[in-house]
Design goal:
Layout (H helix, E strand, L loop, with lengths): L3 E3 H5 L3 E3 L21 H13 L7 E9 L4 E6 L1 H21 L4 H10 L1 E2 L2 E2 L1 E2 L2 H12 L12 H17 L4 H13 L1 E7 L2 H10 L9 H16 L4 H22 L5 H13 L7 H9 L4 H29 L1 H9 L6 H9 L4 H21 L5 H11 L8 H10 L12 H7 L6 H17 L16 E5 L20 H6 L7 E5 H7 L4 H7 L4 H9 L7 H18 L1
Parallel strand pairs: 2-4, 2-7, 3-8
Antiparallel strand pairs: 1-8, 3-4, 5-6, 9-10
Length: 563
Amino acid sequence: MEAFTTIRSMLAGNKIVVPAYQRAYSWETALSKADRGHHVNTFICDLEDFAKSNAEAYYFGHFLFRAKSKTDFEIVDGQQRLTTIVIFLSALFARLRSIRSLTEEEQECYEDMVKRNSTYRFSTVDYDNSFFKDYVINQSRTDKIGVETVSLCRIIEAFDYLQNYLANKDADYCVKMLEIISNASCSTHSVERESDAVQMFIFQNNRGKKPSNLEIIKAQFMYNVHLFGKEETEELLQDIKEKFEKIYTAISYIEGNINEDNVLLYTLRVYFNSLHEWNAVDKINTLLSGDDPVGFIKSFTNLLSLDFEYLKRFFNEDERKYFEVHSLTTLGGLAIVMPFILKAYQFGLSTDSISTLCRSFESITLRDRLIGTRADITSRLNDVFKGFTKENPSIQPIIDRINWMQTTSDWWWAYWNNEQLKYAIQGGINHKTAKYILWRYENYLAAQGKAGYSPIRFDSIADPELEHISPQTPTDGTPVETGYSEYDEEFMNQYVNCLGNYLLLSKSHNCSVGNRPFAEKRASYNHLAQQREIQDMTPDGIWDKEKIAFRKEKLINFILTNF
């Protein structure tokens, strides 16, 4: 490859692949006008801005490759940009073909940059590539059956968005965009030695999505193996590649639930058996400068790979099977619990034990969020985390500590006790947290007197939203005439935005009732148990301060009893 070239020349006659140990596609697409600044949307906006300018050539940045042969290359840096270019070209050629036949020059351009006969100019990671070819390049399928990875979802979203975006563009527009991309300049560097490619990646600043800490650490691991691996170098490099292939595959299943750099940090906490590890990159760099960097790389990479596999199971198989796991992940705020969960999987604990652990941490996590104290919960749990070992894998000391923290009056520990919790939930509550509480309350109500009741999953409620039964702004006419209390200062400050006035509704239901009179709202409250509870509480058709206070007390008792 030439050092300074065009996108067309870079692709023509070559086969470029994303190696399995690299990350999959991670650029995001804004699917509505309300979302802004996403990578794919910015990509097309930049091209259109350039088309309006007088500049000579668009610049797509620098690409780094490892040469496998004269025409076969692994892309080391720039794959997000290159993937998006190929997705856009596929959508662009499809639109042009729908308007008219391609000219001879346009057909040659397609063969140079996208596909010539059975040769694909670009291939993404192995586990996404078959669908990528069928859906994006060949456009031989339109269904999304079998799509499991987040990276593949992003590819589909990008292609669908660009295809829809181009649907009303004319041939002149398409030809102009094709000309810009074909002639766009770029710089490339190709190396044969993997150590050179890795070292360049470490020091190169990515123009698109910044490398994650995990990507940087992977590159540093590979570089240090090149430096210090001696006779083990090739074997160790192959092991790192295989481990990171598993890691990136797992990321494609879990990244909507947890950030990969957080997993890196949690693994560090497990590795050093301390919740007080905070900066993964600095800590790992220090260890790589120590006496045995290769030994550390071996052991840490193995644990890291296992942890990603554990989390793939936790957020997929176990989250679907076990309500306690689903409930904790729905609540979110997993920073404290995840090192414990990773240890539990590592020690081979049963799913019953893991579910119990989730249930206990769900309680303390909710309390911490509702109370909002600045007290450091990590310091209160670090000793039981340290004591949770393969030699002593009992979760009981952890459960006992959390239970004690919820009842003790000892000043250094009492920030999360029942008294603090009851005080914290008297006023307004964050709407996301309130929806979570009402979902759990819904299961509590629905299970009353029903043996073998199967809990309702949060994601089974269509677009759940938080309804203010007494509207935040009163309806036309006096509030009393429409079934509510007077909107005096006390009512506005203490009743409108409190737990007793909140109700869980689907988005469509919430939109339909708005701030209608209470009688109309009440008549529609027949979908969930908590909605029917409101009907039972209001045979007189009035929703006033006394009713709100009564329901608030019920919900407070539910929280204190169940969390």
